[in-house]
Amino acid sequence: MSVLLYARVSTGEQAERDLSIPAQLHALRRRATDERWPIAGEYQDVGSGKTLRGRTGLLSLLRHASSDRTVDVLLVHRVDRLARNIYGYLTLKGKLRRVGVRIVSLVEGFDDNPMGEFLEHIMAAHAEFYSANLGLEIRKGIDESLRRGRWARAVPVGYLKERGRVLIDPARSPMMREAFERFATGTVPTTTLSDELHRKGLVSRTGKRVTATGLCRLLKNPFYAGIMRVRGIEHDGTHPALVSREVFARVQEVFRQKDSGGRTRIRLEHLLSGKVRCPSCGKNLIPERHVKPSGRVYSYYRCHWAGSTCRYLTAAEPLETEVVRQVRDLRLAERAAPILRRQLREEMRRETARQAEQVRALRAGRRGLDVQYRQLVMRMANELVSIGAYEKEFTDIHQAMRACESRLRAVKVDGEETRGTQALLEIAENCEAWLASPDPVLRRRAVDGVVECIEIVGGSPEIIVRPAWRELRGQTVDAPAVAVPVDRT
Fold first, then answer.
1. Which of 276, 295, 294 is nearest to 286 (CA)?
2. Which one is the CATH code of 2-110: 3.30.43.10, 3.80.30.20, 3.40.50.1390, 3.30.930.10?
3. Which of 2, 124, 10 is nearest to 67 (CA)?
């Protein structure tokens, strides 16, 4: 008669700090000595107990037990060292039983009788529940840290993390700030920006070059504006912002303005690109910009689609000036904003009531899942359900628990019902200032937010406002149709 010893920890950090494996093996050796069991081998793993993948120590132990007929005991500190789910534990137990090896737990100390087997199944099920519930609790803790503005993950380029605190990197933060400010102008592509920053010494956390694709990801990361986004949910952070939220919003607007060909510059230089319809064929007019030898610049909107005989042409400056005047004449801040504020207050009241009802229903469902799980464990312990059926039911219950927790987190920050009204209110309150701004990104944002398209009727432009504003037309918005001379060839 001989014994095999097995020890496991979940993380490499625990193994490096000698938190568990040496202590487990020491206790196991002492038990084997007390029982006068010769030790045939010692095996250990660093990894999760949810699966056999990557657990080379356990696989070697199984091969040893199959080939050495003198081994009849596997000694472990606790049953959860073998597996963190009852299906995996019973599978391992069945394999060992077929070669004449029984499992002995140092801590639980099960007797070799029906009652001992019953308790063994209870402890294996408890280990599975503990593992599943621990994941949910850890996620709750992370979400609570986020709500308090604490960041528990790796920080992006331009930041440092020391003793849990997020600090600005004095070496790389100026280059990242420059990247945001230059890209916000809409005139510098990410490829050029990436090359220039690389020459200045900007590298990633691993010391590699920040490519154009990587730079795009960084420029879209709200962490730089003091916002923490995890799984699509945003929280205000306590870390220092590298750029203002206004600059970050302008950068996102530049990304939004990009078409499939990446022609950001021409879209920003021409305020109405993609908006003006040809009066002859109905297609969108294409913006053009010509520089004469004298240095004078001429901008047009022209219809010259492939295969079309239409050659409609109109000067850009008078057309854009008239459209801006018509948008200003809507007086959204005076007419639409008060109504939108009232709508927003009403929607927020409905949203609050809806969220409260959803939270009550989800919490009740979560309690019901806990009851189902306890009942499943008892049925398994009493051998009233097969291993296959248990695995399927446990998977379904665990997935339902995770979905319930995820929906509970999302429902508190959803705000889906109010987002449309909030966006309209922002446009109504800021439209005038955006149109007066020299920033082409803000001017384009104002036009995009209000104008759906522009039709040329009798040589004069008429703006067609977006459907959301047309719904308010009777109360607030009346789009004027004022003629402006245009050139046509």
1. 276
2. 3.40.50.1390
3. 2
DSSP 8-state secondary structure symbol assigned to residue 10: S
Q: Which CATH number fits domain 159-260: 3.30.450.20, 3.90.1750.20, 3.40.640.10, 3.90.420.10?
A: 3.90.1750.20
Among 204-218, 294-308, 357-371, 453-467, which stretch is predicted with the lowest mean pLDDT? 294-308
pLDDT one-digit tens code per residue, 191-245: 889 999 989 989 888 888 899 899 999 999 999 998 888 766 777 778 889 999 8
Query: Whole-number mean pLDDT of the chain?
Result: 79
Of the candidates 346, 338, 324, 341, the residue with the CA atom closest to the CA atom of residue 476: 338
In terms of phi and psi (left: phi > 0; alpha: psi -120 to 50; beta: otherwise), the region of 331 is left
347 Cβ neighbours under 8 A, 6+ residues apart: 417, 418, 421
pLDDT for 72 beyond 70: yes
Both tokens of 152, joined, read 């528990």
In this model, does residue 136 exceed pLDDT 80?
A: no
Q: Coil, strand, or helix at residue 442?
A: helix
**Cα 87 to Cα 394: distance, rounded to the nearest angstrom:** 10
Rounded-to-integer distance, Cα 322 and Cα 314, Å: 13
pTM given for the model? 0.48
Q: What is 209-259 written as a DSSP string?
A: B--HHHHHHHHT-GGGGTEEEETTEEEE-SSPPSS-HHHHHHHHHHHHH--
What are the residue boundaries of the structural domains of the chain, listed by start? Answer: 2-110, 159-260, 268-330+437-488, 335-417
Q: Which helix (H) or strand (E) holds 16?
A: helix 12-16
* Distance of alpha carbon 46 from the chain centroid: 29
**One-letter amino acid of 216:** C
pLDDT digits (tens, 9 = 90+) for 414-439: 556 677 888 888 899 999 998 988 87
pLDDT for 477 equals 46
In the prediction, which pLDDT does 325 show?
92
Question: pLDDT tens digits, residue range 83-122?
Answer: 777 667 777 888 888 888 888 888 877 655 565 666 666 6
